[in-house]
Amino acid sequence: MSEGHDDQAEVAADIAAVEQANTAFYEAMERGDLDELSGLWLPGEDLTISCVHPGWPVLSGRGEVLRSYALIMANTEYIQFFLTDVGVSMTGDTALVTCTENILSGGPAEDGGELGPLVGQLVVATNVFRRTGDGWKLWSHHGSPVLADSDDDDDEDTPS
Amino acid sequence: MSEGHDDQAEVAADIAAVEQANTAFYEAMERGDLDELSGLWLPGEDLTISCVHPGWPVLSGRGEVLRSYALIMANTEYIQFFLTDVGVSMTGDTALVTCTENILSGGPAEDGGELGPLVGQLVVATNVFRRTGDGWKLWSHHGSPVLADSDDDDDEDTPS
Description:
homodimer
């Protein structure tokens, strides 16, 4: 807050780019587009990516992480994310995004062509991005189910 | 892997320092030492810290995060962490640690001086650290319950 006023425009542009990368991540999931999703994660193996789906153990490396998304997409007929409480914390070439994923999803029906029952789910995520020559790429995604409210924290629920 | 062989010793020292900071974080929890714990998180408000306890929503900023630890410590008579699958991924001044927290904990007994029943819990965590002049400090902690095994991923469960 107390320094760096001269490059506020640059910081604002960076934050907007990070928020866009974060949104693109969820939109690729909604479309079930594994190619698009693969391109949003850090490439190569110089920096090991990691991913935790709600209730899952840690997955590490592009092979393991992308296989998990292929599996999830194959078992998800419909999924939509309503993101709330999006907060970006950034320094240098690393950005940390926290958000609440209000999820509405449905699997394939068990007996034929119709959609299975829709399920609502409340998940919070910490997404870490790295700046690359090709834009901000995911380094880590950690999602977890919200099992209880903490209403007494409402006075400070606006991360910046 | 393919470059930077000349500073391998430096990288190894960095990784050791990050692992030590990660261990110190859990040891402070085990001792219920809130002052020690407070000093392990990034100071000030230039970079917003965030924390997700298993099943909780996102907490942001030192006030909210440290209050949650005070609350947890007040309600935890005994807690021990056995860390497994510790993986460090690092670039520049940011390090990302993933680990499995095998937790054994007990609350105060409801009727008097004895310890409450001990409970085992399996949690996975993504901890993000930043390098500071005073060592590596926590920027983000996200812990979540492991609700199901994924035995078919055993061939790749050694993050580096």
